[in-house]
Design a protein that fits this description.
The protein is built from four helices and ten strands, in the order βαββαββββαββαβ. The strands form three sheets. Strands 3-2-7-6-5-4 form a six-stranded mixed beta sheet, covered by helices on one side. It has a two-stranded antiparallel sheet with strand order 1-10. It is globular, with a radius of gyration of 19 Å.
Length: 246
């Protein structure tokens, strides 16, 4: 069996309003490369512990820190800080020391309701400068088809040997090609898919999943097969793309 190709993990975050189809310009936030990977993960752990305690002041913030939840700017301590029951154990994290950013894919429990969680932090001089949180709650998303499952995927923890890594720009172009393929999907593939590619959406596997076939026959197909059918033609625009971590 062919082993899945995982060259990098790219995180796409940002506002999805008022923009062009192509990737947005790089953030104007000045780069800070003084925080290495271990440092960035410490900042993330500090944020998560503060969230568990529902007290944002248990971690360090810059004087001009910005916080948003589901693309809405809000004061620290509001939103998820007041509704969280606990953080679930799922913890898929990545850091990019080249631009001082760190992120987490996880899950939150709010009074028994479990939802996918994404956190992105911009760290400057050892303090959190920006924090972006996304929570995909099932009661606000009628199209979520099944209960989410959050399972550790060891392939994401593999370290690709330096000689086998693709250049940063190429990795971004591959990811951007995915969204080009999804946008106005007419059956043309603008990126590359491994033969064993699977897609997980909000904790639900939406490719090669025969259990979901009654919901839609396409859910039993592979990534490339779905796109070649033009299954996502209803997605007529994917805008304001920017790639914060590579």
């Amino acid at each position: 069996m062919k082993k899945p190709l995982v060259a990098s993990f790219l995180l796409l975050l940002g506002s999805m309003a008022h923009g062009a189809d192509r990737p947005a310009a790089p953030s104007s936030v000045p780069l800070d490369r003084s925080c290495d990977r271990a440092c960035l993960y410490r900042s993330l752990d500090g944020f998560l512990e503060a969230l568990r305690q529902r007290d944002p002041w248990r971690t360090t913030w810059s004087k001009d820190a910005l916080y948003s939840e589901n693309n809405v700017a809000m004061p620290l301590g509001e939103g998820l800080w007041g509704t969280l029951t606990r953080l679930e154990s799922y913890d898929l994290r990545l850091a990019d020391p080249s631009n001082g950013q760190v992120a987490l894919f996880g899950a939150v429990n709010e009074r028994g309701a479990i939802s996918p969680l994404v956190v992105r932090l911009v760290v400057r001089d050892g303090a959190i400068h920006r924090a972006e949180v996304l929570v995909r709650r099932k009661f606000t998303e009628p199209r979520m088809m099944a209960d989410p499952k959050f399972e550790k995927k060891p392939v994401f923890d593999e370290v690709i040997p330096v000689q086998d890594r693709l250049p940063r720009a190429r990795l971004i172009s591959i990811a951007d090609g995915y969204f080009d393929t999804l946008q106005l999907n007419d059956g043309t593939l603008f990126t590359q898919f491994d033969d064993l590619c699977n897609r997980i959406e909000n904790g639900v596997q939406t490719t090669n999943n025969p259990e979901m076939k009654q919901t839609s026959p396409s859910l039993a197909m592979g990534c490339a097969e779905q796109f070649r059918l033009g299954y996502f033609r209803y997605d007529d625009r994917l805008r304001d793309r920017h790639y914060d971590l590579v």
